[in-house]
Structures are given as structure tokens and as C-alpha cells.
Design a protein that fits this description.
Elements: E1 10-21, E2 24-35, E3 39-43, H1 50-57, E4 65-70, H2 77-80, E5 83-86, H3 98-109, H4 132-143, E6 150-154, H5 162-177, E7 181-186, H6 189-192, E8 197-202, E9 205-210, H7 212-216, E10 221-225, H8 229-238, E11 243-246, E12 249-253, H9 257-266, E13 272-276, H10 280-288
Parallel strand pairs: 3-7, 3-8, 5-6, 6-7
Antiparallel strand pairs: 1-2, 1-4, 8-9, 10-12, 10-13, 11-12
The structure holds adenosine-5'-triphosphate (ATP).
Adenosine-5'-triphosphate binds near residues 24 and 49.
Length: about 290
């Protein structure tokens, strides 16, 4: 996962962009580039500002401050023809069949769009009657109809099962390998790990950028080893610490080991407390807590 952006002209170049809605700042001084052939992931909790940033890249919402270039120019109608966008809501016609949805897109772009082989068995089913995973696959195929150079995907696999998610990501990688730049928002850490570069947003601000290793560096996590792991979990949770349980492994993000030991001692628990390499999720917990 390279930390530095790939060479070559940027497909998307966002510099120092802020977007306010009244007195509320949804995006605060964000910068971002996407080059051909790379997958850039936008991460952040609900309301972090990801969709607002994407809408600005698409030219749907103007920035309050800052500069956005897409294909070297401010977002425009002609630029939009060179990109494919899959919104969270998918933008499909529920009362048309899979085939009819693709025919509609084909009519707009003037080029035929074949039904993808993995949707062949539902080609004549109304979109509203097929599963969400297949709807997302269809929205993705529709976004590719005109051979875009840039794909913008807003939570493309939200609510779909792991198999469908893997298939969609295979299709995303295929596009990137063919030279398409991809800007994708996600809540799933497993998906973030598939991106070439990441940008983590918290309350509108960009709090970390780079590879997974860059983002994890400088954050902390501890592992708590004790036979009384259930009691340890309850005590740390009651102490207000960001504790998680994976099987019997108790882990605490964003907290120095001594603070974890102290919280355990207060609960009358003895345990081995070791500093460990944080997961991306733990790093995000810590970075999301950085005061504004
Ligand atoms: N048109 C608008 N008017 C006022 N506030 C808005 C508007 N659009 C977005 N916001 C606010 O800006 C903040 C960022 O919203 P945004 O949808 O960009 O977040 P997000 O990171 O995409 O979240 P999610 O993961 O839930 O989609 C939220 O607090 C939202 O309520």
C-alpha cells in the first residue's frame, strides 16, 4: 500500500476545501488527490463529511472556500461525462427490470450496456425485487456504461453480504488495474485495507492520510491478558475506555497501558497489559477522539 500518490496528472485535485452550511462546517480545509489507476479510500464516522466532499468533487455542491479540479478543470457537465458515480441510494429504477435499467443508461450514453453475466438470471426481474447485493452490482455496471476514467463510489457495499462485497471489490480492482481512478467511501475496515491510500475524516477535518501503516503509526492499543477476561471487559467499559472483545482477547484503543492497569486495579483485577500494534479500527477510534 504506497503512502505517496502515484505519479502523473491528478484526476481529482482538492486543495484546502471548506464547506459550510450556515454556521455549521461540514468539511474543514480538506485536500485530496486521486490519480489514474489508484484506489483512494475516504473513511470516517457518520457525519464526518465524506458525502459532502464527494458532492463537491461531483460539482453538485460548491465549496465555500478552496479549489477543486476534476480532470484539470473545475467540476463541469463535460467532466461528469468522464466519471462514473454510484451514490449511496444507487440511483436505480425499482420498477424497471435489470435489463431495462441498463437499456435506459445505454440510451443516455449512446452505447449498449450488456447485462453482466452474474446478473443474467435476474435480467428480467424488477430491480425492486432483487437483493441489495445485486442492486449494488447493477448500479456499478451502470456507472461503468460509458467507460469512465474516474469512479466515485459512496459506500458501495453497505448492507451487502460478504460474498457480494468481495465480488464488488474484485470489480473495483479490475477497473483500477485498467487505469481508472477510484474514490470510495467506506465504513468497513476490510475495505479500507484494499485501498492504495486512505484519508480519515473526523467532524469535517482530515485527521490522517496515507497508507494503513501511516495511519496506525503514532496511535496506541493495549492487549489485556487474564483468565477473568469477562470481568476485565466489564470494568474497562465501566471506566469509559474504548474496549473491545475479539473472542477472549480484551483490547483497549487510544489509552496508555498505565491507565488501563490503573482501571483494572481499581476493579480489583490483575492482568498482563501489553502495548500492541493497533488495528486500523483502533487507530481510527483514537484519531476520531482528537479534539477539534
Ligand atoms: N445540505 C446540508 N445542509 C445542512 N447540513 C448538511 C447538509 N449536508 C450535509 N450536512 C451535514 O454535514 C455533516 C456531514 O454530512 P455528510 O453526509 O457529508 O457525512 P458523511 O461522512 O458522508 O456521513 P455518512 O457516513 O452518514 O454518509 C452532517 O452533520 C450533515 O448533517
Amino acid at each position: 500500500m504506497p503512502a505517496e500518490p502515484a505519479a502523473g496528472p491528478a484526476l481529482v485535485d482538492v486543495q484546502g476545501v471548506t464547506r459550510r452550511f450556515g454556521t455549521f462546517t461540514a468539511v474543514d480545509d480538506a485536500s485530496l488527490v486521486v490519480h489514474a489507476g489508484e484506489i483512494v479510500g475516504l473513511l470516517g464516522a457518520n457525519g464526518a463529511g465524506k458525502t459532502t466532499l464527494i458532492r463537491m468533487v461531483l460539482g453538485l455542491t460548491p465549496p465555500t472556500v478552496g479549489r477543486i479540479l476534476v480532470f484539470g478543470e473545475p467540476p463541469s457537465r463535460s467532466g461528469r461525462r468522464r466519471l462514473g458515480y454510484v451514490p449511496q441510494s444507487l440511483g436505480l429504477y425499482d420498477d424497471l427490470s435489470v435489463r431495462e435499467n441498463l437499456a435506459f443508461v445505454a440510451a443516455v450514453y449512446g452505447s449498449p450496456v450488456p447485462v453482466p453475466p452474474d446478473l443474467a438470471d435476474v435480467a428480467d426481474a424488477l430491480v425492486g425485487t432483487i437483493g441489495l447485493g445485486r442492486q449494488r452490482r447493477l448500479a456499478f455496471a451502470a456507472a461503468l456504461a460509458h467507460g469512465p476514467e474516474l469512479l466515485v463510489l459512496d459506500e458501495p457495499t453497505s448492507g451487502v453480504d460478504p460474498l457480494a462485497r468481495t465480488r464488488l471489490w474484485d470489480a473495483v480492482h479490475e477497473q483500477a488495474e485498467a487505469g481508472v481512478g477510484v474514490l470510495v467511501t467506506t465504513h468497513y475496515m476490510s475495505e479500507a485495507q484494499q485501498c492504495d491510500r486512505l484519508m480519515l475524516m473526523s467532524r469535517g477535518r482530515c485527521v490522517a492520510t496515507g497508507s494503513e501503516a501511516d495511519i496506525v503509526a503514532g496511535t496506541t492499543a493495549v492487549a489485556v491478558r487474564t483468565t477473568r477476561w469477562q470481568d476485565a471487559f466489564v470494568a474497562l467499559d465501566a471506566a469509559g475506555l474504548p474496549v473491545t472483545l475479539a473472542g477472549r482477547a480484551v483490547r483497549v484503543a487510544a489509552t496508555p497501558p498505565d491507565d488501563v492497569r490503573a482501571a483494572l486495579l481499581r476493579a480489583g483485577l490483575e492482568a498482563q497489559v501489553d502495548q500492541v500494534r493497533p488495528t486500523l479500527e483502533e487507530a481510527m477510534t483514537e484519531l476520531d477522539r482528537v479534539p477539534a
